[in-house]
Design a protein that fits this description.
alpha+beta; OB fold (Dihydrolipoamide Acetyltransferase, E2P); 5-stranded antiparallel β-sheet
Length: 236
């Protein structure tokens, strides 16, 4: 049985490990700070109470849950958290149980556009049985292992963090080159961590490092790929 309300994601950002899943859920306030294991959640709506698990995310404002029938659905993490309360649905039950979950909260323009695209493709797939939905964006096939890379520091920037009072500091790199690989990636980004700050990097510095590349768009910037936990970084 498929659920007609479900908005399936076009592209899912997978968690690299269970530890990343746990850390992300803590950021979304879906797990306590002392939690050491992921948990099963309850999706409440449309007269249903369905167990589900978080299996990925589209971006920081859209998580992907999977029901027991393996069907996936996009939902705002704060709305999923609200569903876990005992009193959910008792106040304004008619409105909240029938509305689309992604409409229940005010989302950023970027997220609204992305979810609108997901909804539109889902509609097309339903209207044309047997014809797969056509994604508008092509995704580079990224290796699972860490890569040896060189790049040039292009820009220092900040992006909003909806789970913190402070913006996140990031570095944007250009002129990316991957040793032994031909990847159509020219720009990547990373967090400007305390470790990287010790290098006192400046715009124009060429650096080498080891890192895993993941498809994760930088908020408010046209950079589609992130390097996770760059190691052995040095100026060259």
């Amino acid at each position: 049985m498929n659920y007609p309300f479900a908005i399936g994601p076009i592209i899912v950002q997978d968690f690299s490990s269970e530890d990343e899943l746990i850390d992300r859920c803590k950021e979304w306030n879906l797990l306590s700070n002392t939690a050491t294991k992921p948990k099963t959640y309850l999706y409440k709506g449309y007269g249903l109470i369905l167990p589900c698990e978080i299996v990925g995310y589209v971006d920081n404002m859209t998580v992907v849950v999977q029901f027991e029938n393996n069907q996936r659905h996009c939902i705002h993490p704060s709305y999923l958290k609200e569903m876990q309360t005992a009193g959910f649905g008792q106040r304004g039950a008619t409105a909240s149980d029938s509305a689309d979950p992604v409409d229940m909260l005010e989302l950023s323009d970027d997220v609204e556009e992305e979810i609108a695209e997901v909804v539109e493709v889902a509609k097309v797939a339903k209207e044309i049985p047997g014809k797969p939905a056509k994604a508008k964006k092509q995704v580079v096939e990224l290796p699972e292992d860490k890569l040896q890379m060189t790049a040039i520091v292009k820009e220092f920037a900040t992006v909003p963090n909806h789970f913190s009072d402070n913006d996140d500091e990031v570095i944007i790199y250009g002129g990316v080159s991957v040793e032994g690989q031909e990847l159509a990636i020219d720009e990547v980004w990373s967090s400007h961590s305390a470790t990287l700050k010790k290098l006192e990097l400046q715009v124009g510095d060429r650096v080498s490092f080891e890192a895993k590349v993941v498809a994760k768009k930088l908020t408010q910037h046209p950079v589609k790929y992130k390097i996770n936990n760059p190691a052995k970084m040095k100026k060259v």
